[in-house]
Every structure is written in C-alpha cells, then in structure tokens.
Amino acid sequence: MSNDYEGCRLFIAPDGRSGFALQAKGNLAGFVWDFFVSHQENERKAYDLLSLAIEQGGNKLATPDHPLLTNFFERFGFQAVSMLKGNEGNAVTMILLDDAYQKLKPRIHEFLQQMDTRNEVVTSNALKDACASCGQAPQTPLAANGGDGYRADGYQCSRCGFIRIHGCLTLGPPKPA
Ligand SMILES: [Zn+2]
Predict the structure, then answer these.
(1) Distance from the alpha carbon of residue 160 to the mean position of ligand 1, in angstroms
(2) pLDDT of 103-145, one tens digit each?
(3) Which of 163, 72, 82, 158 is nearest to 115 (CA)?
(4) What is the pLDDT of residue 1?
(5) Distance between alpha carbon 130 and the CA centroid of its chain, in Å?
(6) Ramachandran region of residue 25, left (φ > 0), alpha (ψ -120 to 50) or beta?
(7) CA 137 / ligand 1 centre spacing (Å)
(8) What is the residue extent of each domain of the chain?
(9) Which listed residue, 5, 14, 62, 158, has the most CB atoms within 10 A of its CB?
C-alpha cells in the first residue's frame, strides 16, 4: 500500500476484488477514491459498496465524465459540481446531497429487491444478458474510459432505468505535486 492513501480508511471486500478508499482526514475528507467493483461480482455489489461508503461518511467523489457513471451516482443523490478537463477525457467532481439521498434510498432498495427476486428464477445463459432488475433483453453495453487505465462498463436498462456497473468507478486521490 502506497502513501497515496494517507489519511484514508480502506474498505476492501474479503476476497480483495472490490472496494474503495474513504478519505477520513484533511481538507478532502469525505472523498471516495478508487472505488472498484470486479466483473466477477453480481449486479448488487456496486450498490452495496456505495451505500456502505455513504453510511461511513463518504459524500464526495471524482469520476470520468460519462453518463453511465454520473447517472449511477445521481441515483444516490450525488450532484456534479465541477468539471476538470483532461487529455484523455474530463473528470467530474460530485457531492452528495443528503436530502436527496434519503429520498432516493427507497427506490434503490426497490431495484435491489427486484434483482434478488429475479436472480432466484434466472438460470439460463440467454437471460443473463437481460436487465438484472426487470428482465428486459438484450441490454446495450456501455463503456466509460477515463484514461490512465480507468475503465468502467455496464448498461442502463432502456425500460426500467436500472444501471449495472463494474470496473473503476471513481478516480484516485490527487498525486502530491
Ligand atoms: Zn430493466
């Protein structure tokens, strides 16, 4: 582990495949860095981990400017506040509006419940490309390339709006000058 995560609390899944760093100290406290969800995880993982990050005090993040990512975070009540132009794409800084999060939480739980119910009945491979929440198929994959090795992919369901997402979902802490 490098000094990059100075002042951070690390949340890593027991299998080491997914997790994030939460800035606990300093003027960037509340930032969720290097939020990563392995492709081997199910559709819930990104939602479960981001919920955990928020419950632990996470309320800011920076992510590549791509609708798959920004829409996903908006589902939780994050709002874009600034844009940083980069050579390989722009990065958006987002902050959590707590009121919005409290209002959106029931909707998120509804999606997750639909997903759990569906996963119990889905056994055929053909159906696995379908929306994890409502079963609409097929879904159009989207990829968000943030440059510098950052990449996320998934889909946004055209029927119910559910977002499945994997990969690198937020950027890392700024490099010391
Ligand atoms: Zn759907």
Answers:
(1) 4
(2) 999 989 988 888 888 777 665 555 567 888 888 887 888 888 7
(3) 163
(4) 44
(5) 20
(6) beta
(7) 8
(8) 3-168
(9) 62
